[in-house]
């Protein structure tokens, strides 16, 4: 881990178990055998977050073609994420890091203690749960789809 707590490339990702939009727990370690993209975002229904996740929704085939499971995580309550997912038609999992508040974001080093939300951090894990790519963008800066495509190509699928 770096001083900020962001997992270093080549290290195993922190464990997380979070409820999806229906309250079903999703445990990262149980997804081993499948590459996973973990995408932290600040707030449901906000402009940049909606733009980013809609772009992922519209290009989810890139993740599917690479055999990567896409998980989007925020500190919003499960019911907020469900309403947003239904409104926007997201077909990937949205996970609630609401309680204990921000525990997963803290474990990945992307929790903003001052404002109580996740930063824009993305992590690509290989089938063994090892971090192969990551990016943490500053406030107000969306992550470009091209960066995800380049990261997916590194998996060699």
TrEMBL record:
Residue ranges of domain Thioredoxin in the record: 7-157
CDD domains: PRX_AhpE_like
Entry-linked InterPro entries: AhpC/TSA, Peroxiredoxin_AhpC-typ, Thioredoxin-like_sf, Thioredoxin_domain, Tpx_Peroxidase_subfamily
Keyword ATP-binding: no
The keyword DNA damage is annotated on this UniProt entry: no
Keyword field: Antioxidant, Oxidoreductase, Peroxidase, Redox-active center
Pfam families xref list: AhpC-TSA (PF00578)
PANTHER family (alphabetical): THIOL PEROXIDASE
UniProt protein name: Peroxiredoxin
Source organism: Cellulomonas xiejunii
């Amino acid at each position: 881990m770096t001083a900020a707590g962001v997992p270093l490339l080549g290290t195993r990702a922190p464990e997380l178990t979070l409820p999806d939009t229906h309250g079903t727990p999703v445990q990262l370690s149980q997804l081993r055998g499948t590459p996973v993209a973990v995408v932290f975002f600040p707030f449901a229904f906000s402009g940049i977050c909606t733009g980013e996740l809609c772009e992922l929704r519209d290009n989810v085939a890139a993740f599917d073609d690479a055999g990567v499971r896409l998980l989007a995580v925020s500190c919003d309550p499960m019911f907020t994420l469900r309403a947003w997912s239904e409104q926007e038609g997201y077909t990937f999992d949205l996970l609630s890091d609401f309680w204990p508040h921000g525990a997963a974001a803290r474990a990945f080093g992307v929790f903003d203690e001052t404002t109580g939300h996740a930063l824009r951090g993305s992590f690509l894990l290989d089938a063994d749960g090892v971090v192969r790519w990551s990016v943490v963008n500053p406030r107000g800066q969306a992550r470009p789809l091209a960066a995800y495509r380049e990261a997916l190509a590194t998996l060699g699928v």
